[in-house]
Amino acid sequence: MDKTPFTETLYYPILFMIIISVVFVGILAVMFRTSEAKIKANEDNAYQLQIVKLTAKTIASELRLHESDLIANSQDTFKKYIKEDNSQSRKCFVVTASGKELAYCYDIGGNGLWGSMRALVALAPDRSTIIDLAVYSQMETPGLGARIEEEGFRTQFRGKKLLSGDNPTVFSLVPERQATTSDTQIRQITGATITSNSVLRMLKDEIMIIKDQQGTAQ
Amino acid sequence: MTKKEIFIVSAFRENSVWRQILGICSSLAVTNLMMNSLIMGLGVTFSVAFSSLTISAIREYTPRSVRMMVQTLIIAAYVIVVDIFLKANMPAISKQLGPYVGLIITNCILMGRAEGFAAQNKPLDSFIDGIGSGIGYTLVLLAIAVVRELFGFGSLFGIPILGDWWIRWSIMVMAPSAFFLLAILIWIINTKYYKVKA
């Protein structure tokens, strides 16, 4: 009876596969653990920077500081003036300077053309007037719908009132290159009507949630 | 074959994209910006070079019956290394490339090189072959991205080249343009260098 070498048996491939898996999974686990904190910090920093960018102008004009300094030291600015308010159903950040509540920054979400989108909207103390808006996560078409992140589109919302009386303001879209004739018109993105409408719908839905929460809280 | 020949063959003469028509999906998906293409190309080069090196180094101990599983596992490990590295050090680019970094695992070039070259050749040769095919892939990506970014965004590497008068071609930003451009590129190279019969 001749003996088959171990490498020819059925056990060898199984053993080999287990060893290879353990080695590589081990390497990846170590690598992930060592950079986990850095990845988390990157994400937090990007998020905080976004909030600071949206509210820096308001803080700057209240304290007579320079907006660019506040943004450059975004982490300090965030620590000093911005606090998370956990009592809200939407993630909410309260901007306080010299004892006054200057702005509320809400994390809101809605659906776009291809998937969900998330945005940060900074509201004045009346919780209706938009200080600034930024979509920070979306899955829209690059170059078309994804342009909702661009200055040209998002800065149009500055100073707009989301509530008219007790109801949400109804905004309408006009073609991109046309001038707006009233406060409730927004220039849409050419080739991305559905995405442009999604932003308006998100604001309309979310402002009612924010408003209802205030109504019950008081 | 000398080391130089291995490189030239894998990067140009037997280029994975224009000669073997592999790795097409990612060539279409990430080529709307030069920077994305470059980082994607480097990610693929790193993954294919080191996975070829590792696969080649253990080729004599790998049982034939499980060799494909081993190759996939090794490729996946290196791709995850790239993904973690980008997330930790280049968060902006990592966000733009999105799922495509993870999808390097399914890029046919890596499996193709592993099976076609690394499984039969010495580790160093396999490493050079991997670098070569990665660079060949990067070149194709950049060639398509030059056209798409210039006409679609009026810029290169995010630096504005064409002024405000330029009307951006939306088609260049969307995936279909990459189909046309890749086809044109393959056509030009084939008729110019390979004397393809009609």
What keywords describe this structure?
heterodimer, A: alpha+beta, five-stranded antiparallel beta sheet, two-stranded antiparallel sheet, 22% strand, elongated, B: mainly alpha, 2 strands, 2% strand
Account of the protein in words:
The complex is a heterodimer of chains A (218) and B (198). Chain A contains five helices and nine strands, in the order αααβββββαββββα. Chain A has 218 residues and is an alpha+beta fold. Chain A has one domain. In chain A, α1 packs across α3. Chain B has 198 residues and is an all-alpha fold. Chain B has one domain. Chain B contains nine helices and two strands, in the order αααααααββαα. Chain B has a two-stranded antiparallel sheet with strand order 1-2. Chain B is globular and about 60 Å long. The two termini of chain B are 32 Å apart. At the A-B interface, α1 of A face α4 of B.
Task: Kindly estimate the percentage of residues of chain A that lie in beta strands according to DSSP.
Answer: 15-25%
Distance between the termini of chain A: 90 Å
- Biggest β-sheet strands, sense, barrel of chain B: 2 strands, antiparallel
Spell the H/E element sequence of chain B: HHHHHHHEEHH
In total, how many domains does the architecture of chain B comprise? 1
CA radius of gyration of chain B is: 18 Å
Q: Would you identify the regions of chain B where 5 or more consecutive residues have pLDDT less than 50?
A: none
As for the number of domains of chain A, it is 1
- Our count of helices of chain A gives 5
Order of helices and strands of chain A: HHHEEEEEHEEEEH
Alpha plus pi helix count of chain B:
9
User: N-to-C terminal Cα separation of chain B, in Å?
Assistant: 32 Å
| Oligomer kind | heterodimer
Task: Give the beta-strand count of chain B.
Answer: 2
Largest interface: A-B, 24 and 26 residues
Roughly how many Å is the radius of gyration of chain A? 25 Å
**Sheet with most strands: strand arrangement of chain B:** 1-2
